[in-house]
Amino acid sequence: GQQVMQIPQYQHVQEGEDFTTYCNSSTTLSNIQWYKQRPGGHPVFLIQLVKSGEVKKQKRLTFQFGEAKKNSSLHITATQTTDVGTYFCARHGGSARQLTFGSGTQLTVLP
Amino acid sequence: DGGITQSPKYLFRKEGQNVTLSCEQNLNHDAMYWYRQDPGQGLRLIYYSQIVNDFQKGDIAEGYSVSREKKESFPLTVTSAQKNPTAFYLCASSIDDLGETQYFGPGTRLLVL
User: Of A54, A91, B67, B86, which sees the most CB atoms within 10 A?
Assistant: First the structure.
């Protein structure tokens, strides 16, 4: 399927520092979704972005969709230990009608 | 994640045995999915079903089989043909098959002894 590249694979931050993960595609995305998976848990839907240049906020989380709809980012301001987990982006798979997930960014927050 | 159940939470299997993982949803969703997740990696699609009595192969269907006899149930069988079955298996559902929000079950960890 069509890939979405996600970077970085791992990120360690001190509590209170900011964190950003990026998702990139070589082709235009119809939409992008973000999920969070806590250690030992299952992915939980966070948000979906559809419009070019769209920015959405959820408390300390800011999600952006690029103007060309080929990239997206998730930024967390002033991380907390509750932010620990793996963050995945996912793209709609077009004709296959399925979501294709990025490889995820595993966030560790050091107290 | 409410409304999707997977059982068992942990499953041990001897090499050469088939095993069936259960997935049930009471969300009245048409579409259901099975993913495999290996340690430190993303989710890979095994099979998906858009409607009852219909299903399609995902990216890594070899060694797996599914059925969709009822809207609320989508069991996955890991057959002996699957060479490396030890993994975390996640079931998900969505309202329709148009790539909308997916809701995941708690997962089943399969360990082949």
Answer: A91
Provide, as residue numbers in chain A, all residues whose Cβ is less than 8 Å from the Cβ of B103. 45
Residue B17 has φ and ψ, to the nearest 5°, of: -100, 145
Strands (E), A1-111: 5-7, 10-14, 19-24, 32-37, 43-49, 55-58, 61-65, 71-76, 85-92, 99-101, 105-110
User: Strand, coil or helix: what is B14?
Assistant: coil
Determine how β-strand B64-66 pairs with β-strand A19-24.
unpaired
Interface size, chain A vs chain B, as Cβ–Cβ contacts under 8 Å = 53
pLDDT tens for residues A71-84?
999 999 999 999 99
Distance (Å, whole) CA A12 – CA B56: 39
CA dist B74 → A27, A55, B23 (Å): 32, 36, 5
Residue with tokens 């999707």: B4
**Whole-angstrom Cα Rg for chain A:** 13
Query: What is the DSSP secondary-structure string of B42-72?
Result: -EEEEEEEEETTEEEE-TT-TTEEE--SBTT
* pLDDT tens column, A20-41: 999 999 999 988 999 999 999 9
**For A50-75, how does the pLDDT look when each residue is reduced to its tens digit (9 = 90+)?**
999 999 999 999 999 999 999 999 99
Chain B contact present for A99, CB below 8 A? yes
Supply the pLDDT for residue B1.
45
- The 10 Å Cβ neighbour count of residue A100 is 23
